[in-house]
Amino acid sequence: MDRKDFLSAFGGKRDHIPVWFMRQAGRYLPYYQEIRKEKTIKDICSDPSTISDISYSPVQQLGVDASIIFFDITLPLEAMGYSVEFKENVGPIISNSARDRHIHGYEEKSDKYSLLEGIRTFRRDHPNTFLYGFTGGPITLASYVIAGSSDRDLSQTISTILQNPGAYRDIMQELMEMIIETARLQVRSGADAIQIFDSWAGSMPYSLFEEYVNNYLLPLSAELSSIRTVYFSTRTSGYISMLSRTDFSYLSMDSRSRLSDISLVCHEEKGMQGNLDPLYTAFNINLAIKETKRILEDARNLDRYIFNLGHGVLPSTSVECLRNIVRTVHSYE
Q1: What mean pLDDT is reported for the chain?
Q2: pLDDT at residue 110 is higher than 70
């Protein structure tokens, strides 16, 4: 499926179901593993040609229908005055607090890690391939800033919201501005759509999530309503009535939800993306294909649907399994 066909499918006009995988250009691929022997994450994200090559590799190796630009959601925080380092088997470490930094905004001249030039390079190298840009979601990025590293259950983040709501609001306002600007700049540079990774949002209690939607996701989605957006979160199927009020084009759901049910709650106004559990791709190809077919059957009446995982590809994922899943989706009638 070329870029033009994917654009049509994104809008609901398709002959076949498109497929790509979150974290498809990463640590499970031998090609990526060879690059990581010599380069750090920051090295890779500072080299537009390497960004482009890694982003395109799953199209070559798996046969997926779209690329997503290779980058890390925390790196734009450095343009805001934070310090970001990567610790092996831990992930991003934010080593300075909001009080210890010089506040400034995100703009093209602050793109020292070549996100935008990587997108422009990809677009020149692969003009016929659909490309997703991406950014972190507000609460997920805030959790890194507040906790200094991954805060998956949002325990430290929620504590800050409850004990110091003013500081929380200040952080969120700055992050909102950065997310909006980076999304717009990526589209101007050649990205066809933006996926917003808000992985930990579902860890918020109901009342805080309602406030989060009203105060942040609604204005964020309204600001980005002129571009194609996909909002990804986990453990939010119980909050879908709130998410349905946003202006995001698509909702990408984890494997704890049934896509046809989610679509009904949204009155079919949202495209759906998902939602094979990544664990299926790491152990048994036959079970993965069986589950893939079940999801495809459930989504058969959705006009706007993109097959994907319910979260990112695991390091132990089988490349051959993903290839078989792509073939299964492409052959589904």
Answers
A1: 93
A2: no
Confidence band of 42 (pLDDT split at 50, 70, 90): very high
Rounded Cα distance between 77 and 210, Å, is 26
- The yes-or-no verdict on residue 103 having pLDDT over 60 is no
- Total number of domains in the chain: 1
DSSP for 85-146, written as a single string: EEETTTEEEE-S-GGGS------GGG-TT-HHHHHHHHHHH-TTSEEEEEEE-HHHHHHHHH
Q: Over 70: is that where the pLDDT of 101 sits?
A: no
Sign of torsion, CA 306 311 315 316? negative
CB neighbourhood size of 100 (10 A): 10
pTM of the predicted protein model = 0.95
Pair 179, 136: CB distance under 8 Å: yes
**Encoded tokens for 253:** 């759901």
Question: DSSP strand E in the chain: where?
Answer: 66-68, 84-87, 91-94, 130-136, 193-198, 229-233, 250-252, 271-276, 305-309
Largest CA distance in the chain: 56
CATH number at residue 165: 3.20.20.210
* Residue 265: domain span: 3-331
Distance CA 126, CA 117 (A): 14
